[in-house]
């Protein structure tokens, strides 16, 4: 039976995917005490990167926003797997780190990473409000446009 967080996601038409296998020597998540750390998630959809390229060249802010939202969906999938299938164990979203593959003159990284932040607020309400970084980078793994990592407090 889905918990209240998953029910909220389902109402919005969001189905969480299976967690992608790590591409190197790391794990998708680590629980330490009452904190859950989720490794950076890229925009995998059906086993493929949905957005490759740079913001300010190949993608608009709106497309980047959608890409960050996909990363956030993958974060929630990783959190669900780490928490034995129960996203209701999330007490709050503590922090998101957003990395945006950008041209040198692109300065709207925060507007892009809002795609992930807005999804956390939709899913968790006030507990979804978090600290955040939104950073422009020269390149990301597999050429993807956005990568987002997360830290959650858990029950």
TrEMBL record:
Database matches in InterPro entries: Endoribo_LPSP/chorism_mut-like, RutC-like_sf
CDD domains in the cross-refs: YjgF_YER057c_UK114_like_1 (cd02199)
Pfam families in UniProt: YjgF_endoribonc
Endoribonuclease L-PSP/chorismate mutase-like domain: residues covered: 6-144
Protein name: Endoribonuclease L-PSP/chorismate mutase-like domain-containing protein
Species of origin: Inquilinus limosus
